[in-house]
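Z., the sequence and structure:
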Amino acid sequence: MRLGIDLDGVVADFNRGWITFYNRDFDASIALDAVQEWNGIPNATHFASMREFWRWAADIDGASLFRHLEPYPDAIEALWSLATWHEIVILTTKPHFGVHDTYAWISEHQLPTREVHIIDHKDTVPCDVYLDDAPHNVYRISRSRPEAVVVRFARPWNSPVPGTESIASWAEFIELVAMLSVG
């Protein structure tokens, strides 16, 4: 099967990354679990808007924030396990300044993929199973790809979407894909 996998919030720990650098750069003490809503960064910081946040995130120690993110525990190992029998297709959305850093991150972490799409409308790339954490992506993909299984990686900033699956760990995702492969 073709597995369409999101990066930020699924494979790469976006919130841990920006919070760590924000605390360092602004002598702040934001807790790692401070983000409880999608695009909630301005509520937790001094930034007046997401536009201001992205201006800062474009250059952190000579690269964009996307170059500095750490993978979630078990994420890369899970992808390698899944790649034994399935095709891993990376589907991620990035601002223009993060594109090259994203490719470098994928290379550095040796993700098992031959196909990467940096795209706003992930539903335009056909996959059998999609895994994403962004509420708008889960909703959009589930509506435009009814033949696919759409899976929400449950995070504090998203809620269940009718007609989709939810998982809370990479182990659960591997189990779900195994069940879909048999059925």
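The helical segments are 14-26, 41-44, 50-57, 65-68, 75-83, 99-108, 135-144, 170-182. The mean pLDDT is 96.

Let me know what you think.
H.
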